Automatic annotation (TrEMBL):
Record domain Major facilitator superfamily (MFS) profile: where: 15-502
Membrane topology field: Multi-pass membrane protein
Keywords: Antibiotic resistance, Membrane, Transmembrane, Transmembrane helix
Region (Disordered) location: 500-521
Name of the protein this chain belongs to: MFS transporter
Subcellular location: Cell membrane
Biased composition (Basic and acidic residues): 508-521
Transmembrane regions: 58-76, 83-103, 109-134, 141-163, 169-191, 203-224, 236-255, 276-297, 309-330, 337-356, 362-388, 409-430, 471-496
PROSITE patterns given in the database record: MFS
Organism: Streptomyces roseoviridis
Length: 521
């Protein structure tokens, strides 16, 4: 089908319902894992996963999602968006089932990577179907309604995960994906035509393989650095070097391709390059601080999964308020005066984690999370809109692919670097408390604070549990300081590269990408 059919309004509304269901599915999955990390680290209730394995369980999904998304869009043009969408739902449902019953951390990581494949196939097809189904003013209204599903998923995900973890085993947070995916598959088959582009984009297998292998090698080296005592080891520096070389080759290859999936030429535009760098650095910090937050609330403070999920709602609420607020402000003020202060505040809220302790009142944690969500929401929406609007219309699709890839890559590196800093500093801080203890106890306690608390409970050694809490807090404080520096660097980049303060541009900015603004919580 090469031209959009005129569908009855009732059918359009039903198609929108199916798309919202799928969007909700993706956003729920994005948020439930952070609530489940502490449980997965528990040797009794979970898989006894160490920090490196938890980094991979989080990062594998994002890494595959980031590197396959632009290829998935080309597949939809070639084979039909409903076909690719359906394939993505099948992969997502099957891999969710696999994750739910994974017997060890390695299988969970593999299942999460497969879920990333499913999400990468679903996301571009979902937006393409929406654009084909609605035209004119109805399209803008449909996008507005569609975007609310992201906010619902982001707010409901931690609470749903908390309820499931309080009443069922950890795999239930993945098992809930299956019936939703099956319902969406039925809706697609019954309601949605198989839209496809009359001029399909070429596939980019070389770019896909180089980007995946480069990011995998880089992430492996960074995560491995947190698991060993010496960075001079070959299994640390060699993957990092190989990853950087592969990514450099990826850029060179994309520069030679006539229609690349990831177009590095766009970075010649100062505002586009600076905006992407700033967002990449911001989301690096967000990923790291979210990783710390999961272990702080449930591990150090001892919150139940449900209480931790409820405690994170202010972040979602702040992001929901921040995105439309920034949209209104940039109509009256230059982007620099809105986004740079917001990004600076976001960085400072990450630094606020350096002052959290075991006795910090919940109200102060909630205020910190609310301000953090508000400021991040005020950055991502207007910066994304400004970057895309700065491009010629024919390059908007390529620009969107580049921006999504950069943001997801920032998240992958944030999880790798943030977790590695936490592991290294924790291991050094816990060492004095382990003197005189049996070797096996020392080895297990060095792995993570979760493992140390488990050993302390088994041996009736409350002093060891207290030492683990102190070591974790010290590691979180050091990590938060580094994350703050990275996010402040993003603010500096945005200050230098964004248009100078003055009269706002005459061309209208598109509505901010509210979905991406909500992805930060």
């Amino acid at each position: 089908m090469t031209t959009p059919p005129t569908l009855p309004k009732s059918r359009q509304r039903l198609i929108l319902s199916v798309l919202m269901m799928c969007s909700l599915l993706i956003w729920l999955d994005n948020t439930v894992l952070s609530t489940a990390l502490e449980t997965l680290a528990d040797p009794v209730r979970g898989l006894g996963a160490d920090p490196g394995q938890l980094q991979w369980a989080t990062g594998a999904y994002t890494l595959v999602f980031a590197t396959l998304m632009f290829t998935a869009g080309a597949l939809g043009d070639r084979f039909g968006h409903r076909t690719v969408f359906s394939a993505g739902l099948v992969v997502f449902a099957a891999s969710s089932l696999w994750a739910a019953y994974a017997a060890d951390a390695g299988l969970l990581i593999a299942a999460r990577a497969a879920m990333g494949v499913g999400s990468a196939l679903i996301t571009p097809a979902m937006m393409a179907i929406l654009m084909w189904t609605f035209t004119g003013p109805a399209r803008a209204a449909a996008i507005g309604v569609f975007s609310t599903s992201a906010g619902v998923g982001m707010a409901a995900g931690p609470v749903l995960a908390g309820f499931l973890l309080d009443h069922f085993w950890w795999g239930s947070v993945f098992l809930v994906n299956v019936p939703v995916a099956v319902s969406a598959l039925i809706g697609l088959a019954v309601l949605v035509p198989n839209f496809r582009s009359p001029t399909p984009r070429p596939l980019d297998p070389a770019g896909m393989l180089l980007s995946i292998s480069g990011l995998v090698a880089l992430a492996y080296g960074l995560i491995r650095a947190g698991q060993v005592t010496a960075w001079s080891r070959t299994d640390v520096w060699a993957p990092i070097v190989a990853g950087l070389v592969l990514l450099a080759v990826f850029v060179l290859v994309e520069l030679r391709v006539k229609v690349p999936g990831f177009d590095p030429r766009l970075f010649a535009r100062r505002a586009f390059a600076g905006g992407n760098a700033a967002l990449g650095l911001l989301l690096l910090g967000v990923a790291a601080i979210t990783f710390y937050n999961a272990f702080y609330l449930q591990g150090a403070l001892g919150y139940s999964p449900m209480k931790a999920g409820l405690a994170n709602i202010p972040t979602a609420f702040g992001a929901l308020v921040g995105a439309p607020l920034a949209s209104r402000l940039v109509r009256r003020l230059p982007l620099r005066l809105v986004a740079v202060p917001a990004l600076t505040v976001a960085a400072l809220t990450m630094g606020g984690y350096a002052f959290l302790g075991l006795q910090t009142p919940l109200v102060w944690i909630e205020i910190l999370l609310l301000v953090q969500g508000l400021s991040i929401g005020m950055v991502i929406g207007p910066v994304t809109a400004a970057m895309i609007s700065d491009l010629p219309l024919e390059q908007a699709g390529a620009g969107s692919a580049v921006t999504n890839t950069v943001r997801q890559t920032g998240s992958v590196i944030g999880i790798a670097v943030g977790g590695t800093i936490m592991s290294i500093v924790y291991r050094r801080a816990i060492e004095p408390a382990l003197e005189g203890m049996p070797g096996p106890v020392q080895e297990q306690a060095r792995v993570s604070a979760e493992q140390a608390r488990h050993v302390a409970t088994a041996l009736h050694e409350p002093a060891l549990a207290q030492a683990a809490d102190r070591a974790f807090l010290h590691a979180m404080h050091v990590g938060a300081a580094w994350v703050t520096v990275v996010a402040l660097l993003g603010a500096a980049v945005l200050l230098i590269t964004s248009p100078p303060a003055g009269k706002p541009k005459n061309h209208p900015l598109p509505e901010p990408d509210r979905e991406e603004a909500r992805s930060t919580a």
